[in-house]
Amino acid sequence: MSSPSPDAESRSTIEMQKAAADGVEPGPPPALPASLEGTARPGRKRRGKKTTASRGPTALSKIRGNGFEGMWPTYLFALSKSAADPDAEYFADPPMTPEEAEEEKNEIYSPDLSFVERMQSCIQRFRSRRRLQGDRTYYFNEYLFLGGVDTNPGSFGGLGRQDLQDLTPAERREATATDVIYGTTAAGDKFYNGDDKIWSVDFANVVAGFISVTLVQITSFDLAKMAVGIDTLDNFLRYVLHHDVCPEYQDDINAALQVCEAARVEWPKIRQLYNFLPGHFNLAAAELFCSKETAENSWSFHRFKRPEGFDAKSVFFSAFALMDEPELFERLSAKNPKLVKEFTSSFELVQVFHPSEDIIKRVKSLVIGDSAGKHVPIGKATFKQTTIQDGYVSPHVRWPISEDVMTLFFDASLLDNMVPGMKATMDICELDAGLRFVQRVEIIVPSFYTFLPQELMRGYKPPVKTNRPPPSVHDPFAEEREE
């Protein structure tokens, strides 16, 4: 590529100046070299940005929040009070125009449409109105899976910007949606197929199953992360009620919201129970009547911080001496109690009996020797037999006692964190004097605990016909040799 020499440019300039001085009109500019011709490009017209008003009377601002503002959980004791902003601006959907309200009522969520069609549209519109990101998207997808909704993107479903630019917002939302409720045999065995013998519409149980099983596993029992998952479900359920998606299930959705409220209360209490079990009384009983090896192998006793100068005998007998249990105290004092039975079972909490104010005063005024004893007031709780399902086939365990209800004793601080309906699997020891105490706690679950069969379908793949013989004890490598 060549360019004009400096001498040529200066001569051209001088000639133009002379022509102007003589009053002669200058001629056309000199032609560009052939190497520079055709390189100029026409300028592109700059597209102006659309304003919110031009996008529609109820369009959402592009700098809006994600739809979950002001919902950070202040109820979690594990978080500091400064972690939540009490003055946070709560999010609200913009008002709908009469035309949009009419469209939702008579077209999108029309009673003439099936529940499957209405709910699928609701899920798609909820995603477009809420900026689900990160963990919220993951939690919401897991919740929908438990409800039989396929959230996996379809193969070859990618669409470019040019493919979407001529579509209306509703058509664009439907074209890019990944949530599918089949409601037919196309769902296979993994998702909702409309078979009333296998599936039922139950908002409350799906929410309970997600919060009590799935959410605990995917968050590793992190209360802050669990709160985000609960708020995501709460927001979705209120969206369903607000837009009148399925009025025939309004009571069921309200029950699901009550499950969310119960979860906010019970999960922090269960965390406290895990941290402070077995308590002073059960620790003293285990040290007195169980072998040292048994107590050391119990995870409950590993977590519990043993107080300095802890006297098991003093704690155990003073607890009954100060309680209103004269008959039991007499049997324990009359002879040397011995361990006669040990058993494991699942229990459901029926009722909690807190120590009275009189008992609390007695404990505070207790003096042993020259110093006040480090004792805590003791109360009791009653339990009945139950089953905690977990997807495994467990043999039926008979109720090991003749009474329908079992009474166990706990520190008052533990009773404060117990809610009737909570379930637990525990190892119980029984003395010949009739006293039973907790030796070990395996698991504690909330009152709304629900294990859904859909949990077992996560890794399910439909069977495929094959001619390859399966491996066996006689030929363990049969599958590898077959081509």
TrEMBL record:
Question: Which GO terms are recorded in the biological process aspect for this UniProt protein?
Answer: regulatory ncRNA-mediated gene silencing
Q: Which Pfam families match?
A: Arb1
Region: Disordered, residue numbers: 1-62, 460-483
Compositionally biased intervals (Polar residues): 1-15
Q: Which domain of life is it from?
A: Eukaryota
What ranges does the record list as Basic residues composition bias?
42-52
A cellular component term (GO) from this record?
A: ARC complex
Q: InterPro entries attached here?
A: Arb1
Q: What is this protein called?
A: Argonaute-binding 1
